[in-house]
Amino acid sequence: MKKKVLKITALLIAVTLITGLGILANSLVGNPVSKRLAERTAETYLAETYGDTDFYIENIGFNFKDGNYYAHIKSPSSIDTYFTLYISMGGKLERDTYSDVLDGWNTANRLNEAYRALTDTVLENPSFPYRSEIAFGRLEFISRQWLGQHDVPSYALIEEDLEIDKLYDITKLGAEAGHLVIYVDDETVSIERAAEIMLDIKHFMDEGGVPFYAMDFVLQYPRTGEDEARPEGSIHILNFFYTDLYERDMTERVRAANDAALAYYAEQDKQKLVEEPIAK
User: What are the helix (H) ranges across 89-143?
Assistant: First the structure.
């Protein structure tokens, strides 16, 4: 009798473990049945909604974070035409991101990647003399609906005005909307040193044929000690225009820009306290 009870108990434990592992696996990687349902939904949706196109399903994957399947859709004839269909485990279409193609989002991403690669030719070149954990360039794009909003750069290009698949002149776009973001580690942190380095960066960019419109710049001390902490003290510059990068009175302009950046950060901190009051 005891042996029979032990066998039943062992069987129940095994079934419980197998069931638990199955549920865990299902939540992490999905299951073949749901994947097939997602595939059928994607195929039917493409045929009914985009039947006159050359769109195809590149792959179907599972997102364990939201429990949905995603079907990546592409077009062999368009570099900017790619989007995603989000489909539930039950095969219901939850979302279609084709609007990213139509509103210029994908095109903006392509151009931004090309500009970043261009700035990397200077910033990641072994001859670039400054130590930096953060150094990159991006093109500023904005959707038309956000024009005039707070923190939107005045020189940002409008995504909706971009032409799908058009081969733009990246250097021209860089001169119109290129934004450098560079943090430099240096043993000397001062307004004068910041002005010197910023002018030098402009020189390297000009020599490398990489135009830009504005620069965010931070000058800070290198990390020290086992905890990789930095000594206090830094210079912060936001949206410093290329046209303001010249030697005469450069120190004064950098000083004013640093004061403006610190005032901006203080205002942001004040707003955060208002929006998220400290709990008593």
Answer: 99-102, 105-123
Domain ranges of the chain: 31-101, 105-275
Express each pLDDT in 89-134 by its tens digit.
889 999 999 999 999 999 999 999 999 999 999 999 999 999 999 9
Q: Residues with Cβ < 8 Å from 138, sequence gap 6 or more?
A: 112, 115, 116, 178, 179, 181
**How far is the C-alpha of 246 from the C-alpha of 271, rounded, in Å?**
35
Q: What is the pLDDT of residue 64?
A: 61
C-alpha span between 216 and 135 (Å, rounded): 10
In Å, how far are 31, 35, 60, 83, 129 from 89, measured between CA atoms? 9, 7, 12, 19, 53
Which element (helix H / strand E) includes 236? Answer: strand 234-241
Please report the pLDDT score of residue 160 as a whole number: 96
Examine the pLDDT at 12 and tell me if it is beyond 50. no
What is d(CA 17, CA 34) in angstroms, rounded to the nearest whole number? Answer: 22
How many CB atoms are located within 10 Å of the residue 60 CB? 18
Strand order of the β-sheet with 68-74 is 56-63, 68-74, 82-87, 93-96
pLDDT single digits (tens) 164-222:
999 999 999 999 999 999 999 999 999 999 999 999 999 999 999 999 999 999 999 99
Tokens at 52, concatenated: 């006159």
Ranges assigned E (strand) in 38-87: 56-63, 68-74, 82-87
For Cα atoms 265, 222, 118, give the angle at the middle one, nearest 5 degrees: 75
Q: Which residues contact 265 (CB under 8 A, 6 or more apart)?
A: 236
Q: CA–CA distance from 125 to each of 122, 163, 208 (Å)?
A: 5, 32, 10
Q: Which two tokens stand for residue 260?
A: 């403006």
